[in-house]
Amino acid sequence: MAANRDSKDHVQTVEIRGHIIDSLILPKVLDVITSRGGAFRIQNIAIGQARSDPSHALIEVSAASEEQLRDILEQIADHGAVPTATHDCRLVAADMDGAFPEGFYSTTNQRSEIRLDGQWLAVDDQEMDCGVLVEPAERRARCVPMCEVRTGDQLVVGHTGVRVFPEQRATERQMFEFMGSAVSTEKPKGLAVREIARELQRTRGSQGRVLLVGGPAIVHTGSTEHLCHLIRGGYIQVLFAGNALATHDIEQALFGTSLGIHMERGIPTEEGHEHHLRAINRIRRLGGIRRAVETGALTSGVMYECVRNNVDFVLAGSIRDDGPLPEVITDVLVAQREMRRQLHGVTFCLMIATTLHSIAVGNLLPAWVKVVCVDINPSTVIKLNDRGSFQTVGLVTDVEPFLRSLVLELEHTASV
Question: Is the domain defined by 86-169 classed in CATH 1.10.10.10?
């Protein structure tokens, strides 16, 4: 129950609460303490007797120096370990635009609070790798990205007066609990598809918002109509993609090809390599995707269904884009800002066949948003977990069989 410490060590007592055993929070905290050269003594621990009962532990943390102790406390704070001797957070005014003060508190994607005038305030717009901007007069705190900082903003510095509430295992069986967060080609895909279908139905029934992050492989693999079915059925409320998905979707709608390959015959068409450019050019001449739908020039496809069914979409540009299409946002900071705005109310995210967009969106999502990543490449899910999007579960499979099975499952459950 204790690790040896010298009487001259610097000491601080912390507490952790919640489902600290089955969510492995307690062993994570103890591991951080010892791996950073500190020691611990568990002063008191109360373990819940039932799955619905929370647990509580008081842990004495010691280190050889004040600096080492501060480093340990900062690391275990991200796991919800809060010093029992609480103090208000420290605020420092930004001295320039676009940069935090030195020593700023770097946020996680987990629910957080800051202590102001002796009271704890929830931090809004939770997102990893941001700072915390505090408006004392309004008694409001929110995450703010570095580029949005303005001179004079009051920002939290250090970990004092900040507490984090790690996502804990629910007391009831959670969706995809059988899958865990590991990635494997051996997982039962049929069961996973049924769980995803149920989550889509639950979200639609609760008037929630589902975000789909999609790559051009949706079009290349012949999955366009499957995704259109989901949009028409009201299962998707927001689409995040790049120039490529929209371009090849429109190319298919206008010319029947994707990257010049005929989608029905599966063979290259004469001068088909020009079709994506001609599709972009036609949409630009018409004034954009929405205008193309309104004038009847675009009558099918994913982008057509988004416009017709009032599905919000954000197309974020890339240095390698042709054109791009008029709706593509070419300024990455503007694209990030619009994506953050569209994430409000999203409770479920489905990422399909796009590594870069999936990682980018994962960085923006709070930890309590359920995320399923479907990709033929297992490294996409591994990268998401490595970068902190630990709530992501992965399904390693090709796009078309997955979307086809998902549509069939939704149709089956709707008819029962």
Answer: no
CATH code: domain 189-415 is 3.40.50.10690
User: Which amino acid is residue 259, in one-letter code?
Assistant: L
Positive or negative: CA dihedral 148, 150, 154, 160: positive
Burial 132-168 (b: 16+ CB within 10 A, else e): bbbeeeeeebbbbbeebbeeebbbbbebbbbbbbbbb
DSSP assignment of 60-127 equals EEEESSHHHHHHHHHHHHTTT-EESS--PPEEEE-SSTT-PPTTBPPP-SSEEEEEETTEEEEEES--
Instruction: Note the pLDDT of residue 267.
Output: 66
- Helix 379-386 vs helix 355-364: crossing angle, to nearest 10: 20
The helices-and-strands tally (H runs, E runs) of the chain is 13, 20
DSSP element (H, E) containing 261: strand 261-262
User: Looking at the predicted structure, is the pLDDT value of residue 403 above 70?
Assistant: yes
Q: Answer for the pair 135, 143: CB distance below 8 angstroms, yes or no.
A: no
d(CA 247, CA 243): 6
3-state secondary structure of 400: helix
Q: One-letter amino acid identity for 395?
A: L
Give mean pLDDT, residues 278-289.
Answer: 97
Q: Identity (one letter) of the amino acid at 246?
A: A
Helix H or strand E segment including 362: helix 355-364
Options 3.30.70.2690, 3.40.50.300, 3.30.70.260, 1.20.1250.20; CATH of 1-84: 3.30.70.2690
